[in-house]
Amino acid sequence: MKLINILVVSSLCLTLCLSTLVSSSLQPYQAIFNFGDSLSDTGNFLLSGALAFPVIGKLPYGETFFQHATGRCSDGRLVVDFIVEAFGLPLLPPYLALNKTQDIQHGVNFAVAGATALDPEFFYQRKIGPVMWTNDSLSTQLGWFKKLKPSLCSTKQECDNYFKKTLFLVGEIGGNDYNYAFFVGGNMEQLKASVPYVVGAITNATSALIEEGAVELLVPGNLPIGCSAVYLTLFQTTNRAYYDKRNGCLKAFNAFSKYHNSELKRALATLRQKYPHANIIYADYYGAAMPFFHAPQHYGFKSGTLRACCGGGGPYNFNNSARCGHIGSTACKDPSSYVNWDGIHLTEAAYRYIAEGLIHGQFTKPI
């Protein structure tokens, strides 16, 4: 069964739930391959040795579901984990953890926390390189996949049969391209000028995967960064006109996310014309997240949406000098009552709702 068919059925029958998909004897996909950044990294950043003692390698990270740190930038599972579980597949192993005897036929995760859509040279040329977490950009991850491909299939027919039952998640990616620049003082106009480059990198990678044989691809947009505790802290102002009255988010930054997403959707539409045989589906992370910012109590977020669960104080519980896991920070007792985990990333509870929105089809749109 194609994902496109699931989406049509799901949009007509919104009572479809994750448990139904999991229990179904007909599995639409036999494998899932994921590319991205910290929103979907399941351990590659830790394994890359990018930092000597990264805090995501210890509790409270991972406390909710795994009861230990896994390299995920959250208290528990991520959107990719819920998608994988929904199709009855095992959690994806991080690429850098693979060994010669490991079964990779059900998929692999190439995402790396801090990764960018654009290559590192773009940022080093603009004097931003030193603040980057990693140089393992989207093109590096694509290279890893190409290196791994011969282990998955050896002939064109074998690859065609394998990939028609395989889902490729291309992101979320691109958020860090903007984060790095915003956090070192880049202005809105400068960042808007970079959007075509970032979107181009995402669509080029999507195109490259199709050329490698991918036919089922899910490409997410950006989250509403104006509702993120790190942005609300770094760019806070006493001028209430900068905040939307309903949610308390920074209007200009949410507008920027929407601009990136609109440009990405436009580019994917063009890409689909080039590859009519491929199902290129846009995942609306922004749309899936906004309902619980609008009505947090309805989704069980009784502790709010803008304050981080884990942090070192301040109006949004984000303190750059005492970030989650560092000395001076504490974690809340019930992460499921929060949307925001550490000021940058979301809680497992929030990721679950986003995943449900995608799987139900309400926020996954064929281009």
Automatic annotation (TrEMBL):
Biological classification of the source: Eukaryota, Viridiplantae, Streptophyta, Embryophyta, Tracheophyta
Species name: Malus baccata (Siberian crab apple)
Family (UniProt): Belongs to the 'GDSL' lipolytic enzyme family.
A UniProt-annotated Pfam family: Lipase_GDSL
Gene Ontology MF: a single term: hydrolase activity, acting on ester bonds
Protein's name according to its UniProt entry: Uncharacterized protein
SUPFAM superfamilies: SGNH hydrolase
InterPro entries: GDSL, SGNH_hydro_sf, SGNH_plant_lipase-like
Keywords on record: Glycoprotein, Hydrolase, Signal
Region forming the signal peptide: 1-19
